[in-house]
Amino acid sequence: MLSQVVEGESQVHFRMHQFLARENGKPEALFYIQEGWACRYRLLSDGRRQITALYLPGDYCDPQWVLGGVSSQPVVAITNVRALRLPCRIPSRADFDGQHAFWKALAGMIERQTNWLVSLGRMTALERIAHLLLELFDRMRQAGLAYGQQCAMPLTQIEIADMTGLTPVHVNRTLQSLRARELIELQSKWLRIPELSALRDVFAMTG
Q: Which CATH architecture has domain 124-206?
């Protein structure tokens, strides 16, 4: 893990709605999320928000900061967050060779961004939300934070709308449809997916 090889690291905490980074700020550190959820977003001139990245336990926020420059978008805590603060510095050749986990995480983030672009551009509302819930469950499971068929899911319907390009009303109707088909269960900020294969079949059913 990167935190084992970086000097100057420290543990930090952020409260819900607290900024990890401000727009156009110059980050002096990136964060390895240990607990909690955060997101990166862009605001349009009329106040509409598009969430462009979601950071869960086990993620680096934001990997590209290590390359220097400014933060083009703000990052805010969705829940209380506990993280390792890792000083930003231009990586050396030894870093490239020795921090495999970090660069693998960066590649994974790029792949997720590609999938989100396809979701927003080509998927139906049902597919978008099914895709999002499957991604969240898979990422929580990889972090060792899924328990059987369930995991924490603290996102509000407004936040889901801001991620999927839908209205909160449309999100609500789509979630109700998934519940009615017994494809998901949502209760007390927990997500349960009885059959992963059945939820994945949503793409075949709507395609």
A: Orthogonal Bundle (1.10)
Half-sphere exposure of 204 toward its Cβ, with a 13 Å CA cutoff? 5
The residue type of 203 is F
- Structure tokens belonging to residue 191: 């997500």
Residue 63: CA count within 13 A, CB half-sphere = 19
Q: Where are the domains of the chain?
A: 2-111, 124-206
SS3 percent helix, strand, coil of the chain, rounded to 5, is 40, 25, 35
Q: What is the CATH number of domain 2-111?
A: 2.60.120.10
113-150 pLDDT, tens digit per residue, is: 766 765 676 689 999 999 999 999 999 999 999 999 99
Say which residues have a Cβ less than 8 Å from residue 50's Cβ, sequence separation at least 6: 41, 42, 44, 162, 165
